[in-house]
Amino acid sequence: MLKEDRAPSSKMSDLFRNRFVQAILISGVFLQIGIWIRNFSVLLFVTEKTGGDPFAISMIYVAEFAPIFIFSFIGGAFADRWRPKRTMVWCDILSAVSVFAVLATLMFSTWKVVFFVTLISAILSQFSQPSGMKLFKLHLSAEQMQAGMSIYQTIFAVFMILGPMIGTLVFQTFGINVAIALTGIAFLFSAASLTFLPADPNIDKDKPKTTLVEEMASGIRYVLSKKELVLLGICFIAAGLGIGLIQPLNILLIIERLGLHKENLQWLMTVNGAGMILGGAFAMMFAKTVAPQKLLALGMLVNAIGISISGLSTILWLTLVAQFFSGLMLPCIQIGINTMILQNTESEFVGRVNGILSPLFTGSMVVTMSLAGKLKQDFSLVAMYEVSGILFIIGMLFILPLFRMTAQKKTEEAS
Predict the structure, then answer these.
(1) Which of the following CATH numbers is that of domain 220-402: 3.20.19.10, 3.40.190.150, 3.40.50.1440, 1.20.1250.20?
(2) What is the CATH architecture of 2-194?
(3) What is the pTM for the complete model shown?
């Protein structure tokens, strides 16, 4: 089964005929529908119930991001122990069950239980997501991996635009109960789609048994022993710090720098999202010819320039152009990083490596997001955006040694 799915042909048409790609893409669509309906319905419902209380709204984001710190590494370690297909199917089923349980409680008890819709799904995703990365490694050849990752990331880009509209429409039309029910149904459809994945490979019964703690420790040693992964980790931190610094301040670009009403923020988000969709499409087209480290370096550089121009600009069209190119190159960063992780990691360590690196980005982002408001009181908006751009340049500089390392590998293989 695996040999058949890892056929050497890397044509795009062959990729779309791949059973793994078909199942993971359909699952991804249903999962994104459920996630965006959940996110916006919970956000609008809590805002409505609390009168826009900042603490209550911030707790939604705590429920979404806290599991990444607490469960990401643990989930990655379990992903390396368990069968990846079975893990993903059961995570989606358990997510759906938890959603329906919350719905029942919401209908007959307190509305505050709605926070658990986000929390439980976010916890389970820390077990499911590294298993998905492992499946890319198992079922796609090295030539197909970057193109497959490009297609998968394009789904996320599309839903960056469609997701908020779908979530808002469902909540405003049907209310919170139907919205949560639809979230659970979408998760069940995702689980059903994943059952069409090729069967998991048999677990090696002769492999010596180890404890979870031993496997987590070996995962840390593995990352530290691979210079490529260490450099990617530093890039993760720099990008996370840069994004977190400006993420809460985008609305101030509209108000302070452009002198427009806050409602015009939607145009920045729309242009950025359109750039992401096109960026994903371009990444698919050039997946065979452009190395992942080049995609990553180019994405970091263009985003640094785009962020800097956005901070300096007082002209709407210039800001929109900068936002478009930042969005255009964001898939290059995501695809480049994910492809390089898969290419430089043995399959039995994929879950743990992903579980170690992902919190570096999210943790860095949350740190600067939490400081952004305070820093804005002491520094100008322009200074904040320029520092963010510099952080992206720093991240890019740590990627440059990977060009030399890749060239050395090719020389060694040729000899």
Answers:
(1) 1.20.1250.20
(2) Up-down Bundle (1.20)
(3) 0.76
Nearest to 149 by CA among 324, 294, 24, 6: 24
State which amino acid sits at residue 390: I
What does the pLDDT profile of the chain (415 residues) look like in tens digits?
444 444 444 466 777 788 888 899 999 999 999 999 988 888 888 888 887 676 777 677 777 777 877 788 788 888 878 888 898 999 999 999 988 988 888 777 777 788 888 888 888 888 888 888 888 888 887 777 777 877 887 888 788 778 888 888 898 899 889 999 999 999 999 999 999 988 877 666 556 677 777 888 888 898 889 888 999 999 989 998 998 888 778 778 888 888 888 767 778 878 888 888 888 888 777 767 788 888 899 999 999 999 999 999 999 999 999 999 998 888 888 888 888 888 888 878 888 888 888 888 888 887 888 788 788 888 898 999 999 999 999 999 999 988 877 666 666 555 5
Q: Residues near 17 by Cβ (< 8 Å), separated by ≥ 6?
A: none
Rounded-to-integer distance, Cα 59 and Cα 118, Å: 10
Residue where the block lists tokens 């819709």: 117
The domain limits of the chain are 2-194, 220-402
Spatial separation of the C-alpha atoms in residues 262 and 255, rounded to whole Å: 6
- Show the 3-state SS of 325-359: HHHHHHHHHHHHHHHHHHHCCCHHHHHHHHHHHHH
User: Crossing angle of helices 115-139/316-343, nearest 10°?
Assistant: 60
Topology agreement, domain 2-194 and domain 220-402 = yes
From CA 380, how far away is CA 364, in angstroms rounded?
21
- Residues 133, 290: Cα–Cα separation, whole Å: 21
